[in-house]
Design goal:
By secondary structure, this protein is an alpha+beta fold. It has 7 helices and 11 strands.
Length: about 220
Amino acid sequence: MLVSNDSSEPEFKIQGHRPILKEMVVNIESVNPTGTLYTCSKVQTILFKGDRLAFSNHDVWFYKIYFSYGEQVGFLEFENLYRESGGWDRINTIYVVKDDTGIRIEYYPVVSDNRQGRKVSPPVMRLDDFFAQYNIEKADQQFYKEKFYNFFAPDEQQYKKDPLDKAFLQKIEQETLDQKMFYDLDEADIQKMNIPETEKQILIKNVKGHQDLQSCN
């Protein structure tokens, strides 16, 4: 628990029926802005088939929770509205709940009798149904599958810059070169764009002069 007014997060904890937890993997993605178009994120495991882990973060803006139960998966994302809250009332607790609709998770950010700030995920679904519901392209499916099933040791994870959304990149492709220069695009994203090679090289040269804007540190 926090006892000061800084923006550190209390440790995440998970609770639920032991036989269910033994069949689950729960990974939490912490997402922060960089001051540019980009965000930085890292994924940490809080539960791996019955083994519980704990971790804390500092001043996280968004969370995404990926969880799996056997062949089924679930997902919950939310803004961290309580990131600047300190004191004994601040918690990061996840409850695994099972009812007639299936297994889901409930997240609680503060100790509250009226469930203030509670976030509830949809019930688990087949992996293919998740891909369809969230419009995940085939090229990106393995990337998401790893977030549902892989183990990410909390003390080994570091923030990494996230690529831009493909639809957003396609929008930028239609703009003029001067407009593209405004975005300070990352080199990896520039290479993905369907634009003339000469434009790519100009944009790459531009972004190499602004590397401080691309840092996740």
